[in-house]
Amino acid sequence: MGTDDAELTGWLRDQGSMRVTEALTLPAFGVHYEAATVTCLLPEPYYHQLSFDGESELTAHVTHRWTPNRPRAVHEVVFVVEPDRGPLGAALAYRQWLAERGELVTLAQKMASNPAVDRLRGAIHAYLVDRSDGEVR
């Protein structure tokens, strides 16, 4: 994973091991290449830890912790390789994966079970993308 932002890479390294459920908004992350996006989906994020290290090149690590109270748990990690879908490629892959499993919940469905969700309509969603080369793809 490359970035020229020394402050960001230093901060990530200093965080140590983080729970995926706390560190990521979605239980997924993607690596963007020139012609493709590789997305890693973590269907059971509760047992995963995320950490970063490396001096000259930042490296991400995801580890899974098996627990004795779940001896028959199925551990699943899904990799999706798609043509370049831009900065939102990982989020789009996660949404498609949920839809294929019949687990995608619409905003209308969320509002039916929790009327307070209606306050989210029109909320601003912003995505920040660091493109050190000055180009956003």
Describe this structure in words.
The chain is an alpha+beta fold. It has one domain (6-120). The protein is built from four helices and six strands; from the N terminus they run αβαβββββαα. The protein has helices at 6-14, 20-23, 89-100, 107-113, and strands spanning 18-19, 28-32, 36-41, 48-53, 59-64, 78-83. The protein has a three-stranded antiparallel β-sheet. Strand 2 (28-32) and strand 3 (36-41) form a beta hairpin. The longest helix has 12 residues, at 89-100. It is globular, with a radius of gyration of 17 Å.
Topology:
Layout: H1 6-14, E1 18-19, H2 20-23, E2 28-32, E3 36-41, E4 48-53, E5 59-64, E6 78-83, H3 89-100, H4 107-113
Antiparallel strand pairs: 1-4, 2-3, 3-6, 4-5
Mean pLDDT: 81
Number of strands: 6
Question: Ranges with pLDDT <50 over ≥5 residues?
Answer: none
**N- and C-termini, Cα separation:** 17 Å
Number of domains: 1
By secondary-structure content and strand pairing, the structural class works out as alpha+beta
Q: Helix and strand succession?
A: HEHEEEEEHH
**Helix share of residues?**
10-25%
Strand content: 15-25%
Shape: globular
